[in-house]
Amino acid sequence: MSYPGHVRAIAVLGLPLIGGHLAQFAIGLTDTVMLGWYGVTALAAVTLAGSYFFLFFMLGSGFAFAVMPMVAAAAASGDDVAIRRTTRMALWLSMAYALVVMPALWWSGQILQLLGQNEEVATLAAQYLRVAGWGLIPALIVMVLKSYLAALERTQIVLWITLAAALSNGFANYALIFGNWGAPELGMMGAAIASVLSHSVSLVAIILYALFALPHHSLFQRLWRPDWEMFRAVFRLGLPIGLTTLSEVSLFAASAMMMGWLGTIALAAHGIVITVTAGTFMIHLGLSNVATIRAGNAYGRQDRAHMARGAVVAICLSLMVAVITSIVFLLFPKSLISLFLEADDPALGDILAIGVGLFAAAALFQLVDSAQAIALGLLRGVQDTGGPMVIATLSYWAAGIPVSYVLGFKMGMGGVGIWLGLAVGLACAGAFLMFRFWRRSIIKVGQGAR
């Protein structure tokens, strides 16, 4: 396939995936915006709670992400049995994981205070998580089924289901946070209830689609029967993916903790900027998923040339998006921040003062963040997860976090220093992961073809 052909194929497959990720992101964005209208303390608490929840969610998502390359490779060889076995055992692992980590969500208040967070904000965050935490179970199941459908290149239905969940979350938030349409005014607890409802809507919709659109896969028949061989295979591939993702998510969670040490205003500003940058990252994540699927198909066929051309196109498209978003962050930071707060909010001036600097730092790490995201997607496509886990962990925690702490506190740069440390960690990961893919994975596929 030519380079223009790869661009068309990535666009057809990727645009619905990007839209689906953006719709999923809209759920968190709605919480942040509406709670920002409700109050700065509520915004700071949901920022902390969201980072904490996301950490556990992304670790558990490793089993869902493992489904994508495994099902893509099985689909390339026409093996419906392997598709069914992979997806079922990923469901088993995801449900088991969710039940194991629920206590950490239930007792999050004590944990957050031990990590040095403000008592009032930590208490509010814990109240939110005791409700929103129950959404982890349907959310992880949905992630597995989304990966299953995406690997089969049924990405449009993933988009529509996620859009339906985002809309239901928005309406429920509007009713339950502020007490509109006759509903009780529940504030943060209303946002938590709305979050669980949106995950449940997604779960029902995606199960119904899988049952009626793909009955030949029989995903849910005798679901209770174990398949220990495939259980181990999904676990071996999924655990390193989960730990890799955890190391990245925990980098941002740690940055939220450090911003919390700077105060409620700094944490609220961080929450706004991290929300916007998370939105732009959804585009890179969608392209990364496409890279995984197409690399997985090429890997199943042992087609090195196809994989290399597809990788170049995915990298270039992601880089273009990163350049555009960096320009927006540098030119319009105040406009972006003002979307999250009322014009007469007494904290607006202080949050703007901090947020403008954070957006400048965010513009810097857009480029390196896109590189590491695409590299991870490509490596997952060739089912290479152990090495990337080590690279990511060392980059984020041996480089990113220490630099954030030194710049932010020892050198007195505050929030901007913390964010520059994030850029350093992401840059290290992007460079080494790209090197691994081009010097190891492409050669590996070529040797397999011979």
Please give a quick description of this structure:
This protein is 86% helix and 0% strand. It contains 16 helices and no strands. The model has no long low-confidence stretch (mean pLDDT 85).
Descriptive terms for the model:
450 residues; mainly alpha; 16 helices
Gyration radius (Cα, Å) is 21 Å
Mean pLDDT: 85
Q: How many distinct beta strands?
A: 0
Number of helices: 16
Biggest β-sheet strands, sense, barrel: none
- The 3D shape can be described as globular
Distance linking N and C termini: 20 Å
Tell me what portion of residues adopts beta-strand conformation: under 5%
What sequence of helices (H) and strands (E) makes up the elements?
Answer: HHHHHHHHHHHHHHHH
Derived from helix and strand composition plus strand pairing, the structural class reads mainly alpha
User: How much helicity do the residues have?
Assistant: over 70%
Spans with pLDDT under 50 lasting ≥5 residues?
A: none
Oligomer: single chain
Number of domains: 1
Report on this structure:
- The protein is mainly alpha-helical.
- The chain has one domain.
- It contains 16 helices and no strands.
- It has helices spanning 3-38, 40-60, 62-76, 80-106, 108-114, 119-132, 136-151, 155-178, 188-213, 228-261, 264-301, 304-331, 333-338, 348-381, 386-410, 414-449.
- The longest helix has 38 residues, at 264-301.
- The radius of gyration is 21 Å and the shape is globular.
- The two termini are 20 Å apart.
- The model has no long low-confidence stretch (mean pLDDT 85).
